[in-house]
Amino acid sequence: MTTVLDGDAVASDIRDSLTDNIDTLTTAGVTPGLATVLMSTDPSSETYVSMKQRDCEEVGINGIHVEIDADAPATELYETIEDLNDDPAVHGILVQLPVPEHVDERRVVRSIDPEKDVDGFHPENVGRLVGGESRFKPCTPHGVQKLLDAAGVDPDGKEVVIVGRSEIVGKPLANLLIQKAPGGNATVTVCHSHTEDLAAKTRTADIVVAAAGVPELIDGTMLREGATVIDVGVNSVDAETEKGYELVGDVDFESAKEKAGVITPVPGGVGPMTRAMLLYNTVKAASAQTGVDVELP
Amino acid sequence: MTTVLDGDAVASDIRDSLTDNIDTLTTAGVTPGLATVLMSTDPSSETYVSMKQRDCEEVGINGIHVEIDADAPATELYETIEDLNDDPAVHGILVQLPVPEHVDERRVVRSIDPEKDVDGFHPENVGRLVGGESRFKPCTPHGVQKLLDAAGVDPDGKEVVIVGRSEIVGKPLANLLIQKAPGGNATVTVCHSHTEDLAAKTRTADIVVAAAGVPELIDGTMLREGATVIDVGVNSVDAETEKGYELVGDVDFESAKEKAGVITPVPGGVGPMTRAMLLYNTVKAASAQTGVDVELP
Hints:
The structure is a homodimer of 297-residue chains. Chain A is 40% helix and 15% strand. Chain A is α/β, with parallel strands linked by helices and 297 residues long. In chain A, strands 1-11-8-7-5-6 form a six-stranded parallel sheet, sandwiched between helices. Chain A has a three-stranded parallel sheet with strand order 3-2-4, with helices on both faces. In chain A, strand 5, helix 7 and strand 6 form a beta-alpha-beta unit. In chain A, helix 1 runs parallel beside helix 10, helix 2 packs across helix 10 and helix 6 crosses helix 7. The radius of gyration of chain A is 19 Å and the shape is globular. The two termini of chain A are 29 Å apart.
């Protein structure tokens, strides 16, 4: 019997606990504030940002939205970040990536105050995560860890194969799962485009995390019977739908489901967890910056 | 036919090139300066520091040695670091670890100016390494990469098993070898004390890096025919020698040599590389801080 993990339900539980945390903060006079900065005309970036703002509103986080013309000089973005760094009402800052080509993305990431870096992408925060003393875990890998926990799958001693080595998923997740810490202690292999026999690696894994950005890369023949399969992919592919496309994961769900013990769907798996963990990081940031203690879920 | 890698010879070549770099710097009026700070009465720490100072002298780096009484208040160390951060004659700072228990080691590591952090342990530098834009690669993993290169072993597409997840070897080496970059692109697995069947993992590897700190953990039965074996271990074990002990690696050299295609000895393998890469980082630091260009080996 295969368990299909309900990411929406797990995320909803986390949001409920965060709402309690936010009540505690608000009672103490602190309204957690998340600034989202959009410098793009890309429709999916716009969608992501508006979803994040809606999430904030729902749980009682003060969402501050800044929009910068995509053609504006890069300095406008850098200065906006400086202002938000200095603003005590803003506890978390998220600049929606990618930024336009004339903007130095690395400079953007590094100029966010590490204490407000709720994406967890600042080098100092990446380094802390590797060292086992993370300030903010990046939202997607953190969401994957929470999903595994909710499913009762403890990575300790397990063989985990992560397919993909991105800065936002593959690398931080690998670094999280090898930690000598609860939710870690896994034997982790990172596979990517230069891996010679991907199927041979995934077939030995207790847990496969697909985060390569390649539609339906992992199918049932590549899995061990009973494996846990976490699909991080969100790929838009042409389809005869009303919109002319559909969203598919990095896993071929139908064939993978035949083999997997536990599997996440797309959508409704990792996606809602990523969104919930952004709220988590914002609450954590507000608590750390104000000294008002909360018990995070 | 097994190749026994001569780390002394490879390190000597690197030191020769660095001597040229140092000539360039000196001609431009810059003498690279490395400060070593010792706050310990541990004999091996004392030995390590004096070796580093001797290495500096040999290549023309200005070695500045600061010794702090192991019983002194922690603030004395913190203030020393502040002073060295501010001293323009000091381009690199190395605090010999471990520090006494009453000193906060994390604070020590974080208080070193990242631009002078030639050990590469500051979170910001760890984060940059993960992001593929390292400022200083930690000396031992960097030395391993250089050794592989000198042996003509390209990790690209290879299966690498790293045994050990320390902050100074296992974690940074894994993060280096998965980079989409020359000397990287390997499929990397990190094993450790919670790995359930270590031999099964090492037996599939093209390259095994033993960095667990467990004497002779890896023997020939755990290796694939023709594997490359890099032994990072330096363990002192009781022996009927004059000193009452001997140094052995994490690899059982005799049995491993029968299987391996390429293998490093202990001593004379990774050890001299680690020392050479500290000089490399110091030269790199001096160049970066003064704007005098050098072509690093």
